[in-house]
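RECORD TYPE: inverse folding
INPUT: structure tokens
STRUCTURE:
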């Protein structure tokens, strides 16, 4: 009788241990699954390697640059955008005011419009320069940009491309200025002003001025596109962008 009792207790103990082990295994698996799920919420990029993140960032920059350049390269891309519209130079404000007061505002408007159209015409030339800069970006650069401010990528592109852009943009701007008639309108405006008695003659460098303003506007537009990709899930056109920047 004792023997049977011991066997029964032994079987019950084994069964209890077996169930406990199975329960523990289930609990452990659920804990791992929960931890993994929480980690993906806290760090949605956790499953991506640094190389994939770098690739995703370059993809985002290429997308933003191409979209930004396309926006500026179309008719009124500069002229109708109050943030980047190219006005008369500060040193020529007296010229503008004086001519408008004399009923020659149309000449001023034509000069302003032609400068902006020249910038729009030249904008297309920036795309290849930007793309080359993005291609040469290091993994460290990419990670710093991803962790940086909302305009970190734009600041990086400004730093590494501005001098090259300015050098290559100026001759393109010159051709564009002539193409859209800006040079003629500029000469008309300042020629008319400089004929007015007793005024201090002024004639700013048209090519330098439009080149500088065109580039400033270009980087403002790129910054808009960068912010859009960072903040707007709908702007992330590929699965990789969604993973890198979060859904």
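DESIGNED SEQUENCE:
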């Amino acid at each position: 009788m004792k023997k049977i009792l011991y066997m029964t207790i032994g079987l019950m103990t084994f069964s209890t241990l077996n169930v406990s082990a199975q329960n523990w295994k289930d609990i452990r698996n659920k804990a791992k699954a929960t931890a993994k799920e929480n980690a993906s919420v806290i760090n949605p990029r956790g499953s991506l390697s640094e190389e994939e993140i770098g690739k995703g960032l370059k993809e985002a920059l290429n997308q933003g640059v191409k979209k930004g350049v396309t926006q500026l390269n179309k008719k009124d891309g500069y002229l109708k955008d109050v943030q980047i519209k190219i006005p008369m130079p500060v040193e020529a404000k007296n010229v503008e005011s004086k001519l408008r007061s004399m009923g020659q505002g149309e000449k001023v408007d034509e000069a302003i419009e032609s400068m902006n159209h020249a910038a729009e015409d030249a904008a297309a030339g920036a795309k290849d320069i930007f793309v080359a800069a993005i291609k040469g970006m290091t993994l460290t650069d990419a990670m710093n940009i991803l962790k940086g401010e909302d305009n970190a990528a734009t600041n990086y592109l400004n730093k590494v491309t501005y001098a090259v852009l300015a050098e290559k943009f100026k001759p393109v701007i010159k051709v564009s200025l002539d193409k859209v008639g800006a040079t003629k309108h500029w000469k008309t405006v300042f020629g008319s002003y400089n004929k007015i008695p007793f005024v201090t003659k002024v004639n700013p460098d048209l090519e330098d001025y439009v080149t500088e303003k065109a580039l400033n506007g270009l980087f403002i537009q790129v910054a808009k596109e960068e912010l859009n990709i960072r903040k707007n899930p709908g702007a992330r056109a590929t699965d990789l962008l969604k993973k890198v920047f979060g859904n």
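NOTES: Residues 2-42 form the longest helix (41 residues).
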